[in-house]
């Protein structure tokens, strides 16, 4: 038996004017993902999981 699990990911970066994104200068603002499987995912009864990680440039952690 063979099962297939896929992950799709999209990054959104802030760019400068009409330039292409440059990882040295342009920060990643958000990451969106989707996990999809033909069998239920681990510890779940669903075959798909979606989510987003969004960066807030105004947030600072004070540790």
UniProtKB/TrEMBL annotation:
Gene3D superfamilies: Ribonuclease H-like superfamily/Ribonuclease H
Source superkingdom: Eukaryota
InterPro entries hit by this protein: PolZ_Rev3, RNaseH_sf
Protein name: Uncharacterized protein
């Amino acid at each position: 038996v063979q099962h297939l699990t896929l992950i799709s990911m999209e990054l959104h970066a802030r760019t400068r004017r009409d330039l292409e994104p440059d990882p040295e200068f342009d920060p990643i603002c958000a990451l969106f993902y989707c996990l999809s499987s033909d069998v239920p995912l681990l510890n779940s009864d669903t075959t798909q999981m979606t989510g987003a990680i969004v960066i807030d440039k105004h947030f600072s952690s004070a540790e």
